[in-house]
Design brief:
Length: about 160
């Protein structure tokens, strides 16, 4: 049975989320920090909006199609990471948010490893990347929940 390569890629990508397409959404004004409620609302909106974008990508049926999926998912994941970094959480959440974003970045970077494994038709390598991404995602989800996030902590 083929492992759920797409699901693993999505887990890696979705935790990162992605920027909303409407201008100004998800950004705090000036140097002001957001309240916890505003941070959670905006971050979860970013995650929700781009989960839809990632879900719209064609599900791969072959290792070759995994390469294409990774190429299309990477910019979405990078945009999400950038959008989340623009948010200024309250000081009491900053440490957890920084740790969560660092875990997300690991998974964004892993998309390149997945693409490379797929380009080499290395199914075992792609599975290994996916397993590491899932493990990392579980840690990221736990932090997201501790922050108070809901959509950004979803495991699927």
């Amino acid at each position: 049975m083929r492992p759920p390569v797409r699901n693993s890629l999505l887990l890696a990508s979705l935790a990162v989320a992605v920027a909303l397409t409407s201008a100004g959404c998800g950004e705090s004004k000036g140097g002001d920090r957001l309240s916890k409620e505003d941070y959670v609302r905006r971050a979860d909106a970013i995650c929700t909006a781009h989960e839809k974008r990632l879900d719209a990508l064609a599900e791969p049926k072959t290792i070759e199609e995994v390469e294409t999926l990774a190429e299309r998912a990477k910019p979405i994941a990078e945009d999400g990471q950038a959008a989340l970094r623009r948010l200024r959480p309250p000081l009491d959440l900053q440490e957890d948010v920084d740790a969560w974003l660092a875990l997300n970045q690991v998974n964004v970077d892993a998309i390149d490893d997945l693409r490379a494994a797929a380009a080499d038709a290395d199914e075992a390598g792609a599975q290994a990347v996916s397993r590491r991404a899932v493990e990392n995602e579980q840690k990221a989800d736990a932090l997201a929940k501790r922050i108070g996030l809901v959509a950004c902590a979803a495991a699927d």
